[in-house]
Specification:
The protein is mainly alpha-helical. The protein has 16 helices and three strands. The protein starts with about 25 loop residues before the first strand and ends in a 26-residue tail after the last helix. Bound molecules: s-citryldethia Coenzyme A (SDX).
């Protein structure tokens, strides 16, 4: 019998503060709340670019010239349709949670993609762009089908964000709504080794395919500790209903040991730099729609109730204001996390490309704490 030598292992639960690899996708300084996509500050990108430019930046590695962007955008617009077979699958599973439907439909798209087995960088990028273009069509088709309506065909005259809202509601969005959706997609596009991107990397590290990696990432993003927070924030805000009730509601929640969703972050110990762009649009949209109370409630949480938590490095994250924006745009709460996924597909694609480019199977260890070398008792001799 081989004796196991005693040894001390250092557990890093949740892989907290563990660097997996290098990346050129994004830089995050959690201490000061700084985020760069391929070297460009998220504030510049949110205020001066479009989602199409950001997708080009992430997947082509540089900001496009006007001509490059025009051709790239035309390519995305041409890829928005989904096969009839996938629409039929959506019809079959229309009563499931929208993230389950998105996950199922992306999985089905693999069966229709002629390049599914090609893991060359060029094919991965082409597939990632196709999924970026098709995923909004899936989410919008689900919303129409579960309301008993026919899905709306993509409109090639509208940009990515505007077309998503058009397919969702069956009418062209106003400029404000399309603009808010565009910034939201930019802010959600890429964020390093977050749980869903890490999941995509693990799948890619076994040399599986992009569709499998994105399906797995969708499963990871769905959780309320990750992408599901925006839906929980809006549920909380609607339960509070009146800014004057926020304090009592929060006291009860926190005294139960529950967490205020939309606050805290594994990396940011200062304000999530993405939050300011959503905070301002939540305030403005609330005023335009004549529903200022939701922003007022959110501000009570941020400026009063959760203010003391800043001492522990707990600030708002990207999800805190996103839910109120989607709600004010008329989007049902259970679709919120799938909107996060729509923005994040380019980031997942880039993380998969980087993993393949310099791959090493991702396979950490677990420290065994169970019994050792037990004598086996055959079934006939067990009591
Ligand atoms: C996203 O990783 C990414 O990049 C993710 C993301 C992306 O773009 O992909 O940025 C998107 O997922 C944002 C996070 C959305 N999730 C939420 O808003 C859910 C609520 N937040 C948390 O549950 C929590 O903050 C996490 C999960 C986000 C991070 O948790 P950690 O890093 O594992 O930290 P922890 O759970 O160990 O908490 C540390 C302390 C604890 O207090 P102590 O036990 O040390 O006294 O902070 C407290 C926690 O209780 N805390 C909170 C809190 N979040 C952490 N207390 C109250 N409310 C909260 N929201």
């Amino acid at each position: 019998m081989t004796m196991t030598t005693a040894r001390k292992v250092e557990l890093r639960r949740g892989l907290k503060d563990v660097y997996l690899d290098t990346t050129e996708a994004s830089f995050i300084d959690g201490g000061v709340g700084k985020l760069l996509y391929r070297g460009y500050n998220i504030h510049d990108l949110a205020e001066q670019s479009t989602f199409e430019e950001v997708v080009y930046l992430l997947l082509r590695g540089k900001l496009p010239t006007p001509r490059e962007l025009e051709a790239f955008d035309a390519g995305l617009r041409a890829e928005r349709s989904i096969p009839r077979g996938v629409v039929e699958i959506i019809q079959r599973v229309k009563d499931a949670h929208p993230m389950d439907v998105l996950r199922t439909a992306v999985s089905a798209l693999a069966a229709f993609d002629p390049e599914v087995k090609d893991n060359s960088k060029e094919a991965l990028v082409r597939k990632g762009l196709r999924l970026t273009a098709q995923a909004p069509t899936i989410v919008a088709a689900l919303e129409r089908i579960r309301k008993g309506l026919r899905p709306v065909e993509p409109n090639p005259k509208l940009n990515h964000a505007g077309n998503f809202l058009y397919m969702l509601f069956g009418k062209e969005p106003d400029e404000e709504a399309a603009g808010v959706m565009d910034v939201d997609f930019i802010l959600h596009a890429e964020h390093g080794a977050n749980a869903s991107a890490f999941t995509a990397r693990v799948v890619a590290s076994t040399l599986s395919d992009l569709h499998s990696a994105v399906v797995a990432a969708i499963g990871a993003l769905k959780g309320p500790a990750h992408g599901g927070a925006a839906e929980e924030v809006m549920k909380m805000v609607k339960e509070v209903a009146d800014p004057e009730r926020a304090r009592a509601y929060a006291d009860a929640l926190l005294s139960r040991g529950d967490r205020v969703m939309g606050f805290g972050h594994r990396v940011y110990k200062a304000e999530d730099p993405r939050a300011r762009h959503l905070r301002e649009r939540s305030r403005r949209l609330g005023e335009v729609k004549g529903q200022p109370q939701w922003f007022q409630i959110l501000q009570r949480f941020e400026d009063e109730i959760m203010f003391p938590y800043r001492a522990k490095g707990i600030y708002v994250n990207v999800d805190f204001y996103a839910g109120s924006i989607y709600y004010l745009l008329g989007i049902p709460e259970d679709l919120f996390v799938s909107i996060f996924a729509l923005g994040r597909i380019p980031g997942w694609t880039l993380q998969v490309v980087e993993q393949y480019t310099n791959n090493m199977l991702i396979r950490p260890l677990l420290e065994y704490t169970g019994p050792m070398d037990l004598p086996f008792v055959p079934i006939g001799q067990r009591g």
